[in-house]
Amino acid sequence: MIDWICEQIVLYWDIFKYLIPVVPWTALITVTSFALALVLGLIIGVLRLSHNRAIAFISGAYVNIIRGVPLLVHIFFIYFGLGSLLNLDRFTAGVLAVGICYSAYLAEIFRSGIDAIAHGQYEAAMSLGMTRFQTLRHVIIPQSLRIVIPPVANEFIASLKDSSLVSIIGLRELTRAGREYYSQNFTDFQTWFLVGLLYLVMTLTLTRLVKYLESVYAVKGFGSSRA
Amino acid sequence: MIKIKNVVCRFGNIIAVNGISLDVERGEVVVIIGPSGSGKSTILRCLNALEEIDSGEIIIDNFRIDKNQKDIHQIRLEIGMVFQQFNLFPHLTVIDNIMLAQKVVRRRSKEEAHKKGMGLLEQVGLLDKVDVYPEQLSGGQKQRVAIVRALAMDPKIMLFDEVTSALDPEMIGEVLETMKMLAVRGMTMLVVSHELGFAREVADRVVFMEAGKIIESGTPEKIFDNPSRPRTKDFLNKVL
Ligand SMILES: Nc1ncnc2c1ncn2[C@@H]1O[C@H](COP(=O)(O)OP(=O)(O)OP(=O)(O)O)[C@@H](O)[C@H]1O
Ligand SMILES: [Mg+2]
User: Fold this and answer.
1) Which residue has the CA at smallest separation from atom 4 of ligand 1?
2) Which domain holds residue A109?
3) Domain assignment present for A162
4) Which of A128, A171, B96, B127 is deepest in the core (most CB within 10 A)?
5) B13 in ligand 1 pocket by Cβ < 6 Å?
6) Which residue of B has its CA nearest to A220?
7) Mind listing the pLDDT tens digit for each residue in B154-197?
8) A33, part of any domain
9) Is the shortest distance between the CB of B40 and ligand 1 below 6 Å?
10) pLDDT of amino acid B221
11) Is residue A227 situated within a structural domain?
12) Measured between CB atoms, which of A131, A138, A219 is closest to B133?
């Protein structure tokens, strides 16, 4: 019994040492693709509210098309389809796929965040002579951002988990490293248990971090009552 | 200064404003009264192009007001508007509320905008609230900040849409006081209000509206003490 426990501890430690160096890659893929998703999502979300019918239609179609296709297919399409045309490396293709996919979800969150701001805010800003763009930039979006922090944070955590899908195109991150270790040592239970545990530690840490940020950025007089 | 000619404004089947003509001179204070739904808000909103007019013409200081005009925002900044629901920006402190449009629209420096805001806040007795967020203000204080925010843009005209209707009675006075101060200084003002005492004291002219039309207009004494139309009498009897 004691022997078995010692053996297991040594095994887990060995797997752990193998996995830990790739954790930064998972973090890098997640952060990079989510940064892309934030920028694209904000642009698309704002465009969806455009008074120009063509712009509103195109941005709406973007959201619906992207959301209607599984992430795995996005990854294949961008890496094998576009990748061979544009000569994309694994990292770029993986980040593009996750980033574009999440931009559609974020666009919807941003759009509803902007919608949630009362009409009176637009009118007040416009009556002060602000243009539509200035109104969005200085009045609407800053308020929307506070509303959307919780759902955006959820998407960030989801994208961390979904980054595991890019292992399929051979991009080396946590899940990929798990597969490598398993195929060399055939310790399936221990390997996947530890991979799962590492994801869990990351997502739980992020959840705590988000809670903390929310409390720090809660502005007196705004959002505190909403949150 | 303001010329309103035969203005009609519809929402679908509803004719909110049905052929209104009204001229307002520089420095004049016009108070608009009338029952709910008579189009008082709508005509104010047409004046700074928050609503589009279906026919007729509005000319302010030689500018034709047209909601779809590209540079309509440049005309809007000459027209301050204060709303019943305050519409302060909740994510900005009092002083930032007042400085924002000065900076991005009037292109004033931070120092200049700040100085202007502080000067106006002092006049309405709110210097101690400079760095507070709107949520922490009373209704009357919010409305005074909203007035200051509009005034900081140096508008030529001020529009007030039932600015005391959402206030507790004990706070109405402080807001009316601020508006009186403006009137005395010669601001051109269009005021929708049911504060008849205020109208009597401050208005040069009172306009009674019903069903999208102007029924009667004249000096406060004439409208309140000696209205010529029965509908005006009915309305005043109900309000008083
Ligand atoms: N955005 C809108 N869409 C549809 N109908 C509207 C809209 N705004 C106003 N109306 C209608 O136009 C008419 C005039 O409204 P308005 O708000 O100008 O009246 P009011 O005199 O300001 O009334 P109150 O004293 O209640 O504020 C009303 O019948 C109202 O229902
Ligand atoms: Mg009204």
Assistant:
1) B11
2) 2-217
3) yes
4) A128
5) no
6) B133
7) 999 999 999 999 999 999 999 999 999 999 999 999 999 989 99
8) yes
9) yes
10) 94
11) no
12) A219
Site of tokens 């398993």: A182
Ligand 2: distance of its center to the CA of A8 in Å? 76
- Residue B191, strand partner residues: B31, B160
Is A205 part of any domain?
Answer: yes
Look up the CATH number of the domain holding residue A209. Answer: 1.10.3720.10
CA angle B89, B91, B95 (to 5 degrees): 70
Q: Give the closest residue to A164 by CA, choosing from A72, A77, A76, A101.
A: A72
Global pTM value: 0.83
Cα separation, A90 vs A162, in Å, equals 16
State pLDDT tens for residues A3-54.
Answer: 999 999 999 999 999 999 999 999 999 999 999 999 999 999 999 988 899 9
Report the number of distinct structural domains present in chain A.
Answer: 1
Q: Which two tokens stand for residue A217?
A: 């950025």
d(CA B178, CA A207): 49
Interface test with A, best of B104, B107, B108, B145 (most A CBs within 10 A): B104
